[in-house]
Design goal:
Length: 101
């Protein structure tokens, strides 16, 4: 299997089951030789735990037009094969970034 590159977006500011699942997925993908990166709020528990685990973290709150533009630029720079949205807010933010607000 060819390695894939993926960008994961989780906008939660707390640590719950979904954030644990996101981290486990990122770690599992990386262990299998895939390139992974995460977009999440700065200082969030997921950001800290992901950084501790060696995951590339891009800290964006995804709550302002500026953050959405930065996200759009990041997707262009990383050019991931897959962008996965892990929270409801991430889905709507991703859509806004995609259509150019």
């Amino acid at each position: 299997m060819q390695p894939i590159s993926s960008l994961h977006v989780n906008t939660a500011r707390n640590w719950r089951g979904g954030e644990r699942q996101t981290l486990l997925l990122l770690e599992g993908l990386r262990q299998r030789g895939h390139q992974t990166a995460l977009v999440c709020p700065p200082g969030s528990p997921l950001a800290r735990r992901s950084e501790d685990s060696g995951i590339a973290v891009h800290a964006l709150s995804m709550r302002s037009a500026r953050d959405l533009m930065k996200f759009r630029q990041l997707v262009g720079q990383l050019n991931p094969q897959i962008v996965q949205y892990h929270t409801a807010h991430a889905h709507s933010s991703g859509l806004l970034a995609r259509v150019g607000m």
